[in-house]
Amino acid sequence: MRIEATVNGERTEAEVWPGESLLFTLRERLGLPGSKNACEQGECGSCSVLLDGKLVCSCLVLAAQADGHEIATVEGLGEGDELHPVQAAFVEAGAVQCGFCTPGLVVAAADLLARMPSPSEDEIREALSGNLCRCTGYQKIVDAVQAAAERA
Length: 152
Ligand code: FES
Ligand code: FES
Hints:
alpha+beta
């Protein structure tokens, strides 16, 4: 089946299998490998994207469900060559180790700051609780989100 969606601001079409996940379509058909596939079960958040402005696990959304909708991935967060403030803060705070969780965390953190510009540490931890990181121990990730909030 053919779907049409707006991905990172651009009208995009793709030929998909009816049971295919949005994550697969983004990565394998649309050349957007930023969203990662770590569990494919909605447990880790590494595949987080915004669907019509709402944070979702793209491994749990059918590509067919995205037909006619708007999708924002980590690739669309920055402005041209300029990193999104959350991306820059992750780099500066050393919140990236293997990096596998990073795109999902960046999307979730950017979503949080768009809704809540000055979150407390507890609010940050709550908002990112669906995103698992096996490397950092989370403190530097929280530091990065706080730094991004302060900069904004
Ligand atoms: S790959 Fe989607 S939640 Fe883990
Ligand atoms: S940096 Fe490796 S899983 Fe988070």
